[in-house]
Amino acid sequence: MLTVFRHCRIATCDPQARVFDRGAVLLRHGIVEWVGPEDELPAGLHADRTIELAGRWLTPGLVDCHTHLVFAGQRAAEFARRTAGTSYADIAREGGGILGTVRATRAASEDELVAQGQPRLQSLLAEGVTTVEIKSGYGLELDAEARMLRAARRLATEHPVTVSTSLLAAHAVPPEFAGRPDEYVDTVCRQWLPALAAHADAVDAYCEDIAFSAAQCDRLFGAARALGLPVRLHAEQLSNVGGSQVAARHGALSCDHLEYATDADAAALARSGTVAVMLPVAFFVLAEKQLPPIEALRRHGVPLAVASDCNPGSAPGASLLLAMHMARRLFGLSSDEVLLGVTRHAARALGLGGRRGSIAAGQAADFAAWSVDSLDEIGYWAGFNPCSMVVKDGSIVLERDV
Ligand SMILES: [Zn+2]
After folding, report:
1. How many Å lie between the centroid of ligand 1 and the Cα of residue 20?
2. CA of 66 to the centre of ligand 1 (A)
């Protein structure tokens, strides 16, 4: 079945960054066949279905490349303590923070994890998100990590979304291994990775002085890559302990946060082709002061992505649009950078470059239509959603009056 979307302004987000003022897209079986100016559509074209967009903007479906959206419970009481002055790191050292969510998540069944993750996923889908990365990391025991990853994959079978899963067993040292992080990392490398490899598209870790050292992440990444799993890393969020260099050495798909990264770190990420993922909601919620080295990342040509970081501690909420606004307001990204950061570069951060994240021949027909006058409005609205249609693999899966 041949479908044509016509009368739209199109930001393809492809490597040529083509923009069409009055454009059209042809697609068949969920794959884009052609995109270009409407007046270059083949004469006498007979489409089985025509979607008239009345001048709306069409972008690739958005890609949220860093979320922890499968978890149980919430941490509102901890947020209250943090707003009253206690630091995130101090709460973590007391056994709260991530470990608080671990207790709730271990007690939840797979069905409960799916049910609690669903409204957060739906909030993202309504914003034009068609691909989401979801991490484990609140189980921290083999069965609970497996349950989280299965819940993440189930969300994809029950909703019109592509889910990419990351095993984040190295998120925090579980209570069973308190004071023995090396033993924990060895257990993950030797037993958990082989057991969970089939459930995970990548392996992630939290490299920080309240979590895992650069040497521990290095060992974990060596074991992951020996199993053919790509890696990504939470690095240099609260301090610089050398995570970016480890990520670069292992050719990580992405390195995320990076507030304390240096010029040398940016250069290393550029050489390894690693995407730098900006997480401004966490920066905002933790009231951080240290900005990521955006100028250095730009100068070295590191691709920049932006993600929601949806999680119950440092980014409670599920809005990629808010993250985009904050990436502009707090980090100074341009509207073009932010749009590429939630499309082509975000897809690359998930190893999906060339398949999703752009509107181009041969790519999946994932689109979002926007009731906005200009592309500058992408990342301008804060707390308002101008997305009016979502297309997933060629099917219209959501329409909203805006
Ligand atoms: Zn995270």
Report:
1. 35
2. 6
**Structure tokens given for 19:** 């923009």
User: In angstroms, rounded to a whole number, what is the distance separating the alpha carbons of residues 64 and 14?
Assistant: 17
3-state SS class at 170: strand
Q: What is the dihedral of CA 31, 37, 40, 41, to 10 degrees?
A: 40
pTM score, two decimals?
Answer: 0.97
According to DSSP, the β-strands at 2-11 and 395-399 are unpaired
pLDDT digits (tens, 9 = 90+) for 377-386: 989 999 999 9
Please give the Cα distance from 376 to 56 (Å, whole number).
14
**Rounded distance between C-alpha atoms, residue 64 and residue 86, angstroms:** 30
Ligand 1 centre to CA of 143 (Å) is 21
Residue 159 CA, ligand 1 centroid: distance in Å: 23
Query: In this predicted model, what pLDDT tens digit does every residue of 219-269 receive, in sequence order?
Result: 999 999 999 999 999 999 999 999 999 999 999 999 999 999 999 999 999
Rounded CA gap, 211 and 206, in Å? Answer: 6
Distance 237 CA to ligand 1 centre (A): 10
Span from the CA of 12 to the centroid of ligand 1 (angstroms): 28
User: DSSP assignment of 283-305, as one string?
Assistant: HHHTT------HHHHHHHT--EE
Neighbours of 229 (CB within 10 A): 18
User: How close is the Cα of 85 to the center of ligand 1, in Å?
Assistant: 22
Question: Which position has the token pair 């025991």?
Answer: 141
Q: Angle at CA 303, nearest 5°, toward 282 and 267? A: 95
Cα of 381 from ligand 1 centre, angstroms: 24
- Running DSSP on this structure, what letter comes out for residue 274? P
Encoding tokens for residue 207?
């490299």
Mean pLDDT computed over 307-333: 97
Cβ-contact 236, 248 below 8 angstroms: no
For residue 31 the two structure tokens come to 């794959």
User: At residue 43, what is the residue type?
Assistant: A
What is the C-alpha to C-alpha distance for residues 334 and 298, in angstroms, rounded to an integer?
Answer: 12
Torsion of CA 62, 316, 279, 357, to 10 degrees: -10
User: What distance in angstroms lies between residue 300's CA and the mean position of ligand 1's atoms?
Assistant: 24
Distance from residue 256's CA to the centre of ligand 1 (Å): 8
